[in-house]
């Protein structure tokens, strides 16, 4: 079964949302991409603002709706 991506020009939020901690790289980024492919709007959380923005930008360049939310979830004041 073929999955379709949201149109990159619309960037309209989808009905389903996912928050991915550690989404800037590695397994977190792979999980974020998989959720995008499944039709979710994805919010990537990472401690490094530049890496989070870069990761979200890569997903957007592929036509997905992704946003970076810099935060360190190990710090209770940021949660």
Structure notes:
This protein has 79 residues and is an alpha/beta fold. 32% of the residues lie in helices and 20% in strands. It has helices at 26-37, 49-61, and strands at 17-21, 41-46, 66-70. α1 links the parallel β1 and β2.
Outline the secondary-structure elements.
Elements: E1 17-21, H1 26-37, E2 41-46, H2 49-61, E3 66-70
Parallel strand pairs: 1-2, 2-3
Shape: globular
Could you describe the largest sheet, including whether it forms a barrel?
A: 3 strands, parallel
Percent of residues in β-strands: 15-25%
Q: Would you report the number of β strands?
A: 3
Which structural class matches the secondary elements?
alpha/beta
Could you give a quick summary of the protein structure above?
By secondary structure, this protein is an alpha/beta fold.
Task: Please supply descriptive tags for the structure shown above.
20% strand; alpha/beta; three-stranded parallel β-sheet; 79 residues
């Amino acid at each position: 079964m073929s999955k379709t991506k949201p149109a990159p020009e619309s960037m309209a939020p989808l009905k389903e949302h996912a928050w991915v901690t550690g989404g800037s790289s590695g397994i977190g980024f792979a999980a974020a991409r998989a959720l995008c492919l499944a039709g979710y709007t994805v919010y990537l959380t990472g401690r490094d603002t530049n890496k989070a923005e870069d990761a979200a930008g890569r997903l957007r360049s592929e036509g997905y709706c992704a946003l970076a939310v810099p935060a360190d979830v190990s710090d209770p004041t940021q949660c």
